[in-house]
């Protein structure tokens, strides 16, 4: 700057939100300085992203070659950044000890938490200890940053107000903090936050004694830590020092400014009024207070001619934004504001029904910005899911927009592979977890098609109820068996490790690393996400020995997810579109664009909900002098105000989230309430969003009724398919003509049909091995139910009722044998030719009676109703009698004179009863027994003549009340036509 003040007076400046910070800063620094003076200078910036922003601003301003000043980041603890190398000199006589490795710290704290919880009689699993250790580390960092000595915890007077929970948490916290210094001393390390504070303190001391030869400018720093505040005060008092704030409001009324706090305690009562930490200016006021300067000493930054300045907006908008974000007790003044003080010129708003629509609208806006040469646009949002959706929408136009905030490693392919591997092993290779692992896109990428063919075969083999646990429980056949012989050896080492019970974490990590390498090869570790995964595995494996002594195998997925969620994977700069960007809130600071889209303005998103502190109650935090949990809301509000300073702004929200209606952000509501009818809604963009994928008025499908040629129609049918053909001909067509067989879900719960199959297997073995001897049924059933492949649900829940039901069957068979009735055959099959087709059937049991034979069908549920039989459905027993009478079943002869359902369901407080669809005298409106076979034959002849040898169309849901199965409802598009044509 030109007219530099005396060195003793702090040189403090601010760049208002309506100006492009980086360009205005660079324009002011270049003014009055030649190339050599610039090159000797140093600019302190908050983080590496800010360094890139200022570098790009210098490039824009220079128009050619330029020797840049040293751009040094102070390091952002929220981003895991350390102090820049220029401030961490290695040639000091007594350098501070190195910082403890992050995972070493996490593991040690997890071990200490686990030990103290166990000692207190409240043991926690290792995964939970690791999670709690992360929260404890964060709280410990806050104590270190705010320079609160841990000994203060022992001096606190908690009083009776705190619950027992907080007393226990604080007690554990104290013990861990007492043990933590000894752990650091053993390692010869210190906390990273402590080291940062020491480095900044030494730098302040050194600069006060011997300032650097060139200028020093601290710009855009919002960290109000005491060490940072002292350094900034030192810089501001240098002869060539400057401190430039971002968006400090110099026009805010003094009454409002003082209301923000922090406030002194009342001298009489000792009560401390609550600070307004949710205000966007609070953290800047806290910074000035800790620097020991007044707001009146801060001046507006001069510099940045139009030729070098970035995109600026109307200063009047800044006044409107400040009014909208005023403390709650001062919002009553809105009614008296002049029109110019509430005008949000250049700000538009859209409100969409869903997050998907919101992402679509934002992508459209970014795409539209590219239509104007040189125009830049950026999305700023804390909602990473919204950011991902916008990036995907932009790809429909071939536009690749990089999200500078990155994504958690847990959502990147290498992270999901590690999680899938741990989940599959922890679940002992249950079908869903196993298939999710084998289908992962990184697995066998070098021979992908062959591998996927095998996985699909295994997928089909595993459909249905879950097989026995472990690799030994999987015994696929056919093509799946060939693939499984290739895949199983890869999984055996990790399966053996996880089956061995609790063991040290390092063993699990090494096992997962080797298995992942075998499955994926080097592709797993390639690219930014792969390198992040490799570093994660290497660091965690190296430090795992310091963590909990033993980890249960079932805890590994949760433990890994907790840690992987905290590893960001950022796209290297320069890979995305040069004129479009997606930022998180931290990354967006000091950034600007011609159009800024501020997305995700729902409460709980922007601003986000304060993360709870499980270790220190709010009252304890206040007593220690720590910032409140709501301070981040104020910082998020400041980020919002800075984003509103762009020349053109679009703010967006969705009226609901993925699961429920969403509340508009308090920031959105304040703008809307203050601006009134000047709150401009972009209805045109909302209309574009709806129209982009609008398919027009849907035309519902008609009821399908295919009619293939007679030659293509099946000429064979089983007795169980007759009802389907008559009630829902389309379902029969799909199954037999199109040959589309429904697939069971993977890892399905046992259905009634599956239970019936299990019961028939028992009864078939009872016939083949024991010839239906009554005393042998129960032992055989119990033996079969104890086999490993029997589903645990069947064994645990259905076995008691099955035991009672089979006892009933054995008793009935024994009683009937005493009356001369004996079992003739069981679980047999046969067929006859009738009406030009082949009718086949399988019987459960046929008994020899005095006057003929009896057809018995076992049911695990209720038998068909008499009404269904009268209406020509559920004639299976009659058709089986027809096949038997015509010699279709080998070894069975005679006239069918009895038709019985033996149901294992409950009736009159007991399991098991016999019911017949007919009656010798036709009582209770049932079919006469002697006429049952003839009626069934005539009915079948009509059905076969109409659909199998005739040309009747296969109409969907012809008799819906007798077509309860829904396997083909989607194929026939049932919901589009059902009910419209009735």
Structure description:
The protein is of the alpha/beta class. The protein is about 45% helix and about 10% strand. It is built from 35 helices and 24 strands. The strands form 6 sheets. A 6-stranded parallel beta sheet has the order 3-2-4-5-1-6, with helices on both faces. The radius of gyration is 38 Å and the shape is elongated.
What is this structure's SSE topology?
Elements: E1 12-15, H1 21-30, H2 35-40, E2 42-45, H3 48-62, E3 70-73, H4 102-119, H5 126-145, H6 152-155, H7 164-187, H8 192-209, E4 216-219, H9 226-236, E5 241-246, H10 254-259, H11 282-291, E6 298-300, H12 315-324, E7 347-352, H13 355-369, E8 377-380, H14 384-394, E9 407-408, H15 413-426, H16 431-438, H17 448-461, E10 464-465, H18 479-499, H19 505-520, H20 527-543, H21 556-564, E11 568-569, E12 580-583, H22 585-588, E13 595-598, H23 618-624, H24 631-643, E14 648-654, H25 666-675, E15 680-681, H26 683-692, E16 716-718, H27 722-727, H28 729-737, E17 746-748, H29 752-770, H30 774-785, H31 792-817, E18 822-834, E19 837-849, E20 852-859, H32 866-870, H33 876-885, E21 896-907, E22 910-915, E23 918-919, E24 927-928, H34 932-948, H35 974-977
Parallel strand pairs: 1-5, 1-6, 2-3, 2-4, 4-5, 7-14, 7-15, 8-12, 8-13, 10-17, 13-14, 16-19, 20-21, 23-24
Antiparallel strand pairs: 9-11, 18-19, 19-20, 21-22
Helix pairs in contact: 1-3, 4-5, 4-7, 5-21, 8-9, 9-11, 12-25, 13-14, 13-26, 15-16, 15-19, 15-21, 17-18, 18-19, 19-20, 29-30, 30-31, 33-34
Keywords, separated by commas or semicolons:
single chain, 982 residues, alpha/beta, six-stranded parallel beta sheet, 44% helix, elongated, disordered N terminus
